[in-house]
Write a structure and sequence with these properties.
17 helices, binds uridine-5'-diphosphate, 384 residues, single chain
Length: 384
């Protein structure tokens, strides 16, 4: 078990969901494997703390800032991609496989196969649609995957479907969901949650948590809109704008700056104590306006034994059975969201049954150890 020697590559060291998942995988393979990042940052530090062998080969600012939604200008970075491909190939010379954790790192890894690298696996964690990826970028990525990837590990069936719809070969896809350690949630104490409530000065008021980077498609504005119809409820917005979306943050602040929401929206920024904060909430919401590839926060909310309400699209549909282990609402529909929140707050036994069933399902389906076994299987298939 876990004998493979893997080179994990990622272009970013900023802690998004993909990087949190990579942290779990690379930690499990720390004895044999290593990680190559194209920038320095929190991910490198966290990997090091976990005893993972990690190196940074810094890419140029121009390449790091290239937007996946950008057009033909991304082709200008080919010489640099080729240089990094050489670096990836050298770093992987004693490995069984390269696992690329992002689209940019996958492109370099695919090029590395032309430079004698081991098999390349793309760990695809994005829904390849026009909303997030330009046509050129989708075409290039799918062409390289079809031609050079030994496997595409996808984080949900929704991600797989979008890959195939963009022209990707279905037989390359293997679904491996994100895995979680439930202990992080189980060990949270009443004292810790009481402390948060007292810091927020909210007494026993109903508290709704939204845990996500601040970004238009993550839909924080939908929750603020819904909150106008819920006069007793407080909200914590946990996360910051990770990829330069300051304009959206200003819009959100304006939206919150109305008398009816006064003192009820709490901006907590990026936090490392998500389990404690989730446990403090009465319920957790996920409000993406676009299909979410997986939706880590949904499973985390279930592990915190809270009712979760999520937008009915993408990976969320694979995690939540409406009215059974959570609730779904139509993406962008703030009225439906406010009604769903009110229903759960007004009916404690319904809330409890959603929370308990969600907890059981999340523990059963997304335990880190089980997911690591699926990952190992996906890697093994690549070798044959
Ligand atoms: N998260 C965090 N601190 C924050 C906000 C979010 O650690 O302040 C974590 C959250 O717990 C989750 C991840 O970031 O594990 C976000 O993953 P998700 O799949 O929900 O969205 P992504 O960032 O991948 O789009």
């Amino acid at each position: 078990m876990r004998q493979h020697k893997i080179l994990f590559v990622d272009h970013t060291a900023v802690m998004g969901g993909a990087e949190l998942s990579l942290l779990d995988l690379a930690t499990a393979y720390a004895a044999t494997s290593k990680v190559l990042l194209f920038e320095d940052g929190t991910l490198r530090k966290r990997l090091k703390q976990q005893g993972v062998n990690v190196e940074v080969d810094r890419a140029s600012e121009a390449m790091l800032k290239l937007k996946a939604s950008g057009g033909l200008n991304s082709l200008a970075s080919i010489p640099e991609l080729w240089r990094i491909a050489g670096r990836v190939s050298r770093a992987a010379s004693d490995c069984d496989a390269i696992v690329a954790n992002s689209q940019k790192s996958f492109v370099t890894a695919a090029l590395a196969t032309l430079r004698n690298s081991p098999p390349v696996i793309w760990h695809l964690r994005d829904i390849l649609t026009a909303r997030h990826f330009s046509r050129v970028n989708r075409r290039v990525a799918v062409f390289l995957a079809n031609r050079f990837a030994s496997r595409v590990i996808v984080n949900s069936h929704a991600t797989a479907r979008a890959f195939v719809a963009a022209g990707g070969r279905k037989e390359l896809c293997q679904v491996v969901y994100n895995g979680f350690k439930s202990e992080k949630f189980d060990l949270v104490t009443k004292d810790e949650t009481m402390r948060v409530r007292s810091q927020l000065s909210i007494g026993n008021a109903p508290l709704v948590g939204l845990f996500s980077r601040l970004s238009y498609w993550k839909g924080q504005h939908i929750l603020l809109e819904a909150l106008k119809k819920l006069p007793e409820v407080h909200v914590i917005l946990v996360g910051e704008a990770l990829f330069g979306e300051q304009e959206y943050v200003s819009q959100l602040k304006e939206l919150a700056n109305v008398p009816e929401l006064a003192q009820r929206v709490h901006w907590l920024g990026f936090r490392d104590d998500v389990p404690i904060l989730m446990k403090t909430c009465n319920l957790v919401v996920h409000t993406s306006t676009e299909p979410e590839p997986f939706g880590r926060v949904i499973v985390e909310g279930q592990l915190a034994q809270k009712p979760v309400i999520a937008s009915a699209a993408g990976g969320a549909l694979e995690l939540i059975e409406d009215g059974v282990n959570g609730c779904l609402f139509s993406p962008g529909d703030s009225l439906a969201l406010s009604e769903s929140i009110a229903k759960i707050i007004d009916d404690p036994s319904f809330a409890e049954s959603l929370a308990q069933r969600g907890y059981q399902d999340a523990k059963q389906n997304f335990a880190l150890e089980t997911i690591l076994q699926s990952f190992e299987k996906a890697i093994s298939l690549t070798k044959s």
